[in-house]
C-alpha cells in the first residue's frame, strides 16, 4: 500500500468509526488496526486524533464544495441559481450518506475548532458567501450580516439533509423538494 493509499485508508476508516462509535470512543489504535496499518503510521500522517478529525472534516467539505461548484451555472436569476445549488447539495448528501452523517455529528461540534469551521465556511464554501453578496447587491436577499446568513444557510442545509436522510423517499416528492427550498429561500430573501 502506497503512502497516499495508507493516508486515505486512515481517513476512510476514521470516517466510518467516528460516525458509528463517536470521536471520543474511537481510539487511534482501532483506526490504525481497521485501516490495516501500524499505529505509528497513523502518527506519521497525523500528529493527533484531533488533526486527523480536522483533515477529514476539511477534505470532505472540499469534496462537497467541488461537487457543488462543478454544477454552478451562474445565470441572471439568483433564485434559480440558488435552487439549483440547493438541489445539487442535497443530492450530494443523499449520495454520500456516511459523509453527511459525519457532517451532521461534527459540523457544530466542539471537536472541530472554530477556526477550522471558519476555514471551511470562508474558503472552501466561499461560493455561498459570493451568492449571498450577489443577492444583497441586487436587493433580492435581506441585508443581514453575511457571516450570520452563511451560518443560517448551513444550519438549514443540515436540518433539510437530516430530514431527507431519515425520509429518502420524500426527496423524490416535488412537494417536499420545493418546500425545502422555499423555506431556505424565504429565510434569506428581502
From TrEMBL:
Domain of life the protein comes from: Bacteria
One Pfam family matching this protein: TetR_N
Keywords recorded for this protein, A-Z: DNA-binding
PANTHER family: HTH-TYPE TRANSCRIPTIONAL REGULATOR RUTR, REGULATORY PROTEIN
The keyword DNA-binding appears for this protein: yes
Protein name in the entry: TetR family transcriptional regulator
Gene coding for it: calR
Annotated InterPro entries: DNA-bd_HTH_TetR-type_CS, Homeodomain-like_sf, HTH-type_TetR-like_transc_reg, HTH_TetR
Gene3D superfamilies to which the protein is assigned, alphabetical: Tetracycline Repressor, domain 2 (1.10.357.10)
Domain HTH tetR-type: from-to ranges: 4-64
DNA-binding region(s), residue ranges: 27-46
Amino acid at each position: 500500500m502506497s503512502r497516499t493509499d495508507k493516508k486515505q485508508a486512515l481517513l476512510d476508516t476514521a470516517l466510518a468509526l467516528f460516525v458509528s462509535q463517536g470521536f471520543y470512543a474511537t481510539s487511534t489504535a482501532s483506526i490504525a488496526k481497521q485501516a490495516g496499518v501500524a499505529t505509528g503510521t497513523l502518527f506519521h500522517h497525523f500528529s493527533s486524533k484531533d488533526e486527523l478529525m480536522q483533515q477529514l472534516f476539511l477534505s470532505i467539505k472540499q469534496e462537497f464544495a467541488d461537487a457543488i461548484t462543478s454544477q454552478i451555472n451562474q445565470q441572471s436569476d439568483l433564485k434559480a441559481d440558488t435552487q439549483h445549488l440547493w438541489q445539487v447539495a442535497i443530492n450530494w448528501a443523499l449520495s454520500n450518506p456516511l459523509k453527511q452523517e459525519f457532517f451532521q455529528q461534527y459540523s457544530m461540534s466542539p471537536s472541530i475548532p472554530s477556526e477550522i469551521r471558519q476555514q471551511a465556511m470562508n474558503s472552501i464554501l466561499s461560493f455561498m458567501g459570493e451568492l449571498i453578496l450577489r443577492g444583497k447587491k441586487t436587493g433580492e436577499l435581506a441585508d443581514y450580516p453575511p457571516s450570520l446568513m452563511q451560518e443560517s444557510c448551513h444550519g438549514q442545509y443540515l436540518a433539510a439533509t437530516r430530514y431527507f436522510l431519515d425520509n429518502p423517499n420524500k426527496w423524490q416528492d416535488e412537494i417536499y423538494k420545493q418546500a425545502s427550498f422555499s423555506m431556505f429561500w424565504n429565510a434569506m430573501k428581502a
